[in-house]
From TrEMBL:
This is RADX protein. The gene is Radx_1. One of its GO terms (molecular function) is single-stranded DNA binding. InterPro entries: NA-bd_OB-fold, RADX. It comes from Ploceus nigricollis. It comes from the Eukaryota.
């Protein structure tokens, strides 16, 4: 059928009601958001957004309500979609934005694609990777992997991706989302090493929409975390990484077929793990327990 592209949509969306189909690749994926309220009677108050791209640039795409349980898990980073009968509206101004792996890519930030059950009922098709043709001009997924030796030089709030061998994972803990709120964030601390430094990555991993991965992080697994943010603890200058709204977490058993497996730094890490003795590494691993971070000073005088 006749296709349109994101650049053309941005120029013509105000003058149209119906749009030609779109062919896009998912580059980023947010966690699933529940926005239900007791006084509002909605069947499935869910929302998730994705950053999708074609040859002309990148745009946000929002999946609404009952389409979320139906499609959210099938729409992975790297998936190619054919979309028809979607809606276009002005962007929500307070949304978080992931840092694109390709800094040269044009971003269309004024509008977003809305996928709804009705008004209009969106038609979504997933194109298998083996059927994707080079002439479609869809961009590849790109990453910003760093090694542990590079971390200390990065500025606060910098966005990056990491891979490491887990040496410690703490118990799941809860923090209130807001004071006096009944809602909690679930998170756990982990350490991962990649052979480039004596120090591990210190990772604050909030539960994303991947409970099957979050609950099975354990020592000796290969852990990949994308779209992490660098946090610098003052005055100790301790650096750790925390998840963002667009973070994805993968462990051993989930890596096959993921786009990052082609990344040079990921390949280097795999080479390093082959040179390590599993028995020696297991001796250094720890699981569970309370992990106070940032660590309190040695004495009251230092407070």
């Amino acid at each position: 059928s006749k296709l349109t592209n994101l650049g053309h949509l941005e120029m013509t969306w105000r003058s149209r009601v119906h749009f030609h189909p779109l062919l896009v690749r998912i580059l980023h994926k947010s966690r699933l958001r529940y926005y239900g309220k007791p006084e509002k009677k909605m069947d499935m108050p869910y929302q998730a957004y994705f950053e999708v791209a074609d040859g002309s640039g990148m745009m946000s795409m929002v999946l609404w309500n009952s389409l979320c349980p139906e499609w959210y898990h099938s729409m992975k980073v790297g998936t190619v979609l054919l979309l028809a009968k979607y809606a276009i509206k002005s962007s929500y101004p307070f949304k978080t934005h992931p840092t694109p792996g390709d800094s040269q890519m044009k971003r269309f930030a004024t509008i977003e694609i809305c996928l709804n059950v009705r008004d209009p009922p969106t038609e979504i098709s997933i194109i298998p990777e083996e059927m994707v043709k080079p002439e479609w001009g869809l961009p590849e997924v790109k990453y910003r992997f760093i090694t542990r030796s590079e971390l200390d030089d990065l500025p606060h709030n910098h966005s990056c991706d990491v891979i490491g061998l887990v040496t410690f994972v703490g118990r799941a803990e809860r923090a209130r989302k807001r004071e006096h709120s009944e809602d909690f964030w679930l998170y756990r601390w982990a350490h991962a090493i990649d052979g480039t430094s004596d120090q591990p990555f210190i990772l604050e991993l909030f539960a994303t929409s991947q409970p099957d991965v979050f609950e099975h992080i354990h020592p000796m697994t290969y852990l990949v975390c994308t779209q992490m943010r660098v946090m610098t603890e003052n005055p100790s200058r301790t650096v750790y990484l925390t998840t963002s709204n667009e973070s994805q977490i993968f462990i051993t058993g989930w890596h096959k077929g993921q786009p990052y497996t082609k990344d040079a730094k990921v390949k280097n890490f795999i080479q390093w793990t082959k040179s390590q003795s599993e028995a020696d590494q297991i001796k250094k691993t720890v699981i569970g327990g309370y992990y106070p971070f940032p660590r309190p000073p040695d004495s009251f005088l230092k407070y």
